# Entry
Amino acid sequence: MRAFRVFTPLLLAAVFASCATGPPVATRRPPSAFEAHSESPSPPVLRLSDGRRYLTVLGTIHAVPEEHADALSLPQLLNDEIEAADLVVVESNLLTLEHRDRLLQAMRVHHSYLRADRHKGRPSLSDFLKDRDETLLEEFSLALSERLAPLHERQLSSLLALRPWAARSNLNSLRRARDGIVWSPGVDAQVVRAARGAGIEVRYLESWRDLAALHDAAEQQSYVEELLFSVMGPVSEEAMARARRERLLETLESWGRGDLETAPGMLHDRLDVEVPPVVRAGLEATQRMLLETRERRWVPRLLSFLEETEAKRIVVAVGAAHVVSEAAVFPDLLRDAGFKPVGAESLPYRR
# Structure
């Protein structure tokens, strides 16, 4: 069970990174050819067609604090579209309560995948720190214990044993717990429940192992630099917690309005401190990986789902950043695949 406590928030945090409350994302209004057709108030939605098939692409928030869970209710129009769909496609199978038991079972088998093993060429955060400076590991551990007190020695050793990317996600979860935030499943879980209640097939664009492998293949030093800045830098835990909460509330408000112009930007820009160039470069690289790299994998998989199932009416639920971010290419890739914008009135709701 200890592994579950360590790795459940780790993996969920890694997936949440791709939604509107995750890593910093620049935002803009989509190109004029891809205006979102959404009712007011309504979350960000793209409604598209290639002449044969209709896509409703919903930008979701993957998780929400329990106290704000009511803010993420789906409008009736979207529930109607889900119930009338032939197929529902969701970003990841980590994002719904229905898969919690399967998630825990997978982590029991594969949790060692996330732990580092230097002999296999996968050094841990501890290895990176020791290689850089003999005293850095001790200084980092002390600073982290002071910032997150009381931090149990077992929690600290577990975090240091992880790959740097996984340590960052785990640290983010520890900070959320320290903030007193209890997370509930977000919009994705609602979409899946509605689909299953209507007997609609649900498929997923990626698994937790797909996302873990992507992080694991990335340059780990950038994660190390971000960890050092966030733990040993000049920004207090209180200031970071305040910035996280403000950004979260703005995210929930902009999602409910379907506001594609004012979605929150980079968290670090809210802090009254200069972010070192090496840290900012690492954050931007992570953003590209979590958005563009994944989206380029998703579109061929989505198209294969459409061919296999011969579905005509499809609802696709992905993190809002994949719909509204300047760094996202998902809408453009769908356009290149032949899908053009249509109004809600053009969608065939009835079977």
Summary: The mean pLDDT is 79. Residues 2-342 form one domain.
